[in-house]
Amino acid sequence: MELRNFARNGAAFYAKALDVRRSNAKHVAMSEKTPTDPFSMFRDMVNQWEKAANDYGGKIAGSSEFARSMQGATAVSMQIQQAVHEGMTKVLAATNIPSREDLAALGERVGSIEAQLSRIEAALGSSTTRSSSPKPKRTKLPPTKSK
Amino acid sequence: MSETNLLERSAAEFERAMQRNIKGLGYLASPAPVLGASPKDTLISRGTLRLYHYRPMSDEVYRVPILLVMATTNRGYIFDMVPGQSLVEFLLKAGFDVFMIDWEAPRQDESHLGLDDYVLDFLPSCVERVLKETGEPDLTVVGYCFGGVLSLLWAAINPGPPLKNLVTFTTPVNFKGMEMFQAWSDKRFFDVDRLIATYGNCPAEMLYSAFDLLRPGAKIAGNIRLWDNLWNDEYVKSFRMFDRWATDMLPLAGRYFKETTEQLMWDNALYEGTMVIAGKKVDLANIKVPFMHVVAEHDHIVPYEASKPLVPMIGSADKQEVMLKGGHVSLVAGGNAIKRLWPQLDNWLQERSL
Lengths: 147, 354
Description:
heterodimer, A: about 150 residues, mainly alpha, B: about 350 residues, alpha/beta, two-stranded antiparallel ribbon, about 45% helix
C-alpha cells in the first residue's frame, strides 16, 4: 500500500514537473548554478572532493616515506616473480618444454630477420601497404601569400 | 531555488536517470571506439618502430613535410582520434604532408634497446625515409612529451640539415622539476637494475600506475562524472576515446628505461649539459633552426618547472615558447586543442614550410 502511494506520488510529481517544463517558456540551462540546486551542489562536491584527493593524495604519494614503501612493495613483488621464474624454468627444463628465454631467443632471431627485411624493403623503396593515388604538388603557399 | 525551477530540474534529472540506465547498458555492451583510422601507409615496421605516411587530403601540399614523433610510453593515435578530432586530419586538410613515428610494445628480445638506438638509429632511419619518400632535402620534426626529448637529442647531435623546423609539445628538460617522478625514482629506494633483470622491459602496468598516482582522485571522480553524463552521447564518446588512449600504455625497453632513469631522472644530464649518447655529447645550443615549444598551463605530468628552461637552452634565433590553457593531453587532443594548439601550429608552420 505504502509502495503504491509512493509510486503514485512520484508519478504525480513527475507529471507536474513535466507540465511546468512545458508551460515554462524560458528553458533553464542545466549548467545554471543556484545556491540551493542539489544537482549542481552534487557536481560541485565531486569537483571539490577530486581537488582535495589530488592535493592530499599527491602530498602523500610525493613523500619519501611513500616512495620507500612503494619501492619496498615492488622489491617484494620482484622477489616473488624471480622465485616463481626460477621454479618454472626448472620444471620446464625437466619436462622438455621451451622456457621464456628459449622463446625470446627465437623471437630475437625472427626480429633480426625482420630488421634485415625492413632494411632491404627500405633500400628498394617499397612498403607493405601503399596508396596508388598520384602524389600532390609540393607548391602550396600560405593563404596570405597565395591571395 | 524556486519550486518551479526545482520541479523542472527534477524532471530533467529524472529523464537523464532513465537515459543513463538505457545508455549505460549500451555502453557496457558496445565495442571500444575505432581510433587512429586516417588512411595511411606503413613505411617502416621494424620491431617496436613504426613509420606511417598519412595519405594527403589536398591536391597541393607545402614543400616541407612534417614528421610527428610520439612519446614512447603511449600510442600515436592521440594525434588521430576520430574524424573531426584528429590533428593529423587537420594538418592534412591544411595542406601538410604528414608522417608519424609511432611505437609498438617492445618485445622481450628488444630489452637491449637503449637511448642510442632511438636517437641514432630509429629517428635518423625515419628521417631518411621521409626525405626519400618526398624527394625533399629537409623536414619539420614535431615531438610530443618524450617524443620531444628524443627529437631534441637527435637534433642536438645532428644540427642543421635536414632539420628545417623543430616543434616540441610539453617536453621536459629539467627532470628535477618532475617532483613526483623524482620521489618515486629516488635512487635510495629504486633499484632499476633489479627491475630490468626481473622483467626485461619496464612493464606498462607499472608506468600506468605511476601516471595514475599523479592525480589519485581523478579516476574515481572521472567515473562519477561518466555516470552523471551517461545520457550525453558526446561526453561518453569523448570519455571512451581518452580513457582508451590513457590505459593503452606501452612498456619501455629495459636498457632505454635504465638509461633515462639514470641519466635524466638521477643525473638531470640534459639540463646540466652532461648528456652523452654513444660517445656523442648533447648540447641543445647546437639547435639553430626555427623552434617552438608549446606548454600546457595545467600540465600535471610535465610541470612548467620541468619544461621552462628549454627555450633559453636552444641556440636558435627564431625561437619561442607558447603557453596554452589545458593539461598534458588536452593540449594536443580534444576540444581545447582544436581551438588553441592546432591553429597556432598551423600558423607557425605555414611560413616555415615553403
